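4.2 Preliminary Data

To establish feasibility before requesting continued support, the project team ran the inverse folding procedure on a target of 272 residues. The structure was first converted into the token representation described in Section 3, and no sequence information of any kind was made available to the design step. The complete token record follows.
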């Protein structure tokens, strides 16, 4: 290749690279409104963003994989926890976690009811951004150092056998619904939700107790009811419910397919 050919090759490659970069930039900017749900930017969302920055939440938490990496990634937190739980948590984090037991404790942000509502609105807006699967392995609120919560690389239902129990266990550990973000399967290890160890035995006792007002007659029916109507029976404990409403999200009845619920029930029935 002569010097003239080399120079021409360099100019053409530079032009093509610049054109590709400019084209991708224009394409990205043209889709910002669609990808970020710009039409959902309500005053509450904007106020919540301002509160988020004012309190320097990003110093510990991450959103879309960006932040302090000291505390959990909150990109999908509203889908993992739900509004009732987040509201109670932001009012007083010390009710949910012990500094001695969990080795860290979120300081109380001392927010008013409206501020809490706005922060949750902001986080919910973030959770619906089309982030193209980023971060690829988000930090979920489960604490992988706690027994019974280590998820590693989440399995997918397509990667396991057709056995309902195996399908249910894969779904339990996948996100969504990320059941293991709130529930451990180890005795005595309670996270945002109670441990599911010994679930069948406990369900049998609950159904037989006079405090139970639900419609389940068997442990399997109780497990299904707990997934689809979590407030039918409130597990004792201030960190699990408030105002007669369970902190467990109540959207699984619509967000999960009937077959997925069947698989979850089949797996959870093995936790005798």
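Position-by-position output of the design step:
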């Amino acid at each position: 290749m002569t010097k003239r050919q080399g120079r021409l090759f360099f100019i053409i490659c530079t032009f093509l690279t610049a054109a590709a970069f400019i084209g991708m930039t224009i394409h990205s900017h043209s889709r910002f409104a669609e990808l970020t749900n710009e039409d959902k930017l309500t005053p509450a969302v904007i106020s919540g963003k301002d509160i988020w920055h004012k309190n320097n939440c990003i110093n510990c938490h991450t959103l879309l994989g960006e932040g302090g990496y000291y505390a959990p990634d909150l990109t999908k937190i509203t889908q993992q926890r739900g509004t009732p739980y987040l509201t109670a948590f932001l009012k007083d984090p010390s009710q949910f976690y012990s500094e001695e037991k969990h080795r860290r404790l979120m300081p109380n942000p001392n927010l008013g009811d409206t501020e809490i509502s706005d922060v949750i609105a902001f986080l919910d807006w973030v959770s619906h951004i089309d982030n193209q699967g980023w971060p690829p392995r988000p930090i979920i609120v489960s604490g992988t150092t706690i027994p019974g919560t280590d998820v590693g690389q989440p399995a997918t239902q397509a990667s396991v056998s057709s056995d309902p129990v195996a399908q249910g266990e894969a779904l339990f550990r996948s996100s969504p619904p990320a059941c293991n973000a709130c529930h451990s399967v180890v005795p005595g290890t309670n996270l945002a939700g109670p441990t599911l160890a010994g679930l069948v035995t406990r369900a049998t006792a609950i159904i037989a107790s006079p405090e139970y007002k639900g419609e389940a007659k068997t442990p399997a029916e109780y497990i299904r009811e707990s997934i689809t109507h979590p407030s039918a029976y409130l597990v004792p404990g201030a960190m699990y419910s408030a105002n007669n409403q369970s902190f467990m999200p109540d959207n699984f009845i619509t967000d999960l397919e009937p077959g997925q619920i069947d698989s979850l029930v089949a797996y959870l029935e093995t936790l005798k």
